[in-house]
Design a protein that fits this description.
Elements (H helix, E strand, L loop, with lengths): L11 H8 L3 H15 L4 E11 L28 H13 L4 E6 L8 H15 L3 E5 L5 H10 L3 E3 L18 H13 L3 E3 L2 E3 L5 H12 L7 E6 L16 H14 L4 E4 L8 H9 L4 E4 L11 H11 L2 E2 L4
Parallel strand pairs: 1-2, 1-9, 1-10, 2-3, 3-4, 4-5, 6-7, 7-8, 8-9
Helix pairs in contact: 1-7, 2-8, 3-4, 7-8
The structure holds S-adenosylmethionine, 6-(5-methyl-2-OXO-imidazolidin-4-yl)-hexanoic acid and iron/sulfur cluster (SF4).
């Protein structure tokens, strides 16, 4: 569907022009685009589970799970299928529609652990949930195996613009990320790809990231916008916080440039007021993570999210 509608490539200058607009003009434009393509009162709700915690060989400067930083996080082995299913059943009962499983791996390695992840996908899918995993880099055969197991989405973020990427990670390249995304696409999986604000980048790098995402053909179906959750012991612990209006700008620009995608207001919601979240929804965010925690950090409580939905007359989106 999306492939026939893919627009011409977006340049960083075009994305920057959007980000630089007067804020309320930008929000108004994005809200109009949003309403053409989506029900503005419905928000897709996904729940995360870290199925393999910590000890990651990559050195992403923001991440609690990198073995390069002393964050005090305890490493855990890959969870068992039953533990995952128990969590997935609870997520479904609590109203989640998509279940996302993360593993702190640099790349997928063939063997019993990968087979177990495929089994997790198969059984979570059987519960009637949409499935998503994020496992690092993978090859064609592994992508095909995941597709075969019933995987809907693969999450693999570009995180920031190409010019800023070296400041974020030294153990892999931007092109390796793009190659993995290409493989995911060729296996027939839906792509979940976005970034983080607060990595010391400026608007220029944000514009580059948005242009990169919007120029993919087809565009990603899901675009998570994370606000850095500062983690003690990481090189980015003391980074300056990004103002909430900048988050609204990036969400709005993502909505204008990728009209059909789920734009996901992801990590960082615990630090956002209800008012700021409401503006993000108006500007086109239509997906959030629900549940007590993200991967290793807290998320707003289900009670506070239910209260926010009630105040804004929002309903969870049920796919299918
Ligand atoms: N290892 C896999 C990978 O790198 O693709 C997946 C796991 S990683 C935790 C998934 C995404 O979560 C990252 O690409 C990043 O955008 C986001 N993330 C990780 N730590 C974060 C933090 N402290 N604050 C905000 N977002 C974060
Ligand atoms: C994404 O872009 N954000 C999620 C999901 N994809 C896997 C992860 C957010 C992680 C936030 C930090 C943590 O909890 O460790
Ligand atoms: Fe590893 Fe992913 Fe964390 Fe980078 S973001 S250190 S690849 S778990």
């Amino acid at each position: 569907m999306a492939s026939t509608l893919a627009p011409a490539a977006t340049s960083p200058a075009e994305a920057a022009a959007l980000l630089d607009k007067p804020l309320l003009d930008l929000v108004f434009e994005a809200a109009a685009v949003h309403r053409e393509h989506h029900d503005p009162n419905r928000i897709q709700c996904a729940q995360l589970l870290n199925v393999k915690t910590g000890g990651c060989p990559e050195d992403c400067g923001y991440c609690s799970q990198s073995a390069h930083h002393s964050t005090g996080l305890e490493r855990e082995r890959l969870l068992g299928v039953d533990e995952v299913l128990e969590d997935a059943r609870r997520a479904k009962a609590d109203g989640a529609d998509r279940f996302c499983m993360g593993a702190a791996w640099r790349e997928v390695k063939d063997g019993p652990e990968f087979d177990r992840v495929c089994e997790m996908v198969r059984e979570v899918k059987d519960l009637g949930l949409e499935t998503c995993v994020t496992l690092g880099m993978l090859n064609d055969a592994q992508a095909a195996k995941l597709k075969d197991a019933g995987l809907d989405y693969y999450n693999h973020n570009l995180d920031t613009g190409r010019s800023h990427y070296d400041e974020v990670t030294s153990t892999r390249t931007y092109d390796e990320r793009l190659d993995t995304l290409q493989r995911v696409r060729e296996a027939g999986l839906s792509v979940c790809c976005g970034g983080i604000l607060g990595l010391g980048e400026g608007r220029e790098a944000r514009a580059e990231l948005l242009a990169e995402l919007a120029s993919m053909d087809p565009q990603p179906e899901s675009v998570p916008i994370n606000d850095l959750v500062p983690i003690e012991g990481t090189p980015m612990e003391q980074n300056e916080r990004v103002d909430w209006t900048e988050l609204v700008r990036v969400i709005a620009a993502a909505r204008v440039l990728m009209p059909r995608a789920y734009v996901r207001l992801s990590a960082g919601r615990t630090e956002l007021s209800e008012e700021a979240q409401a503006l993000c929804f108006l500007a086109g965010a239509n997906s959030i993570f629900v549940g007590e925690s993200l991967l290793t950090t807290p998320n707003p409580s289900p009670g506070s999210d239910a209260a926010l939905f009630a105040k804004l007359d929002l309903e969870p989106l049920v796919s299918g």
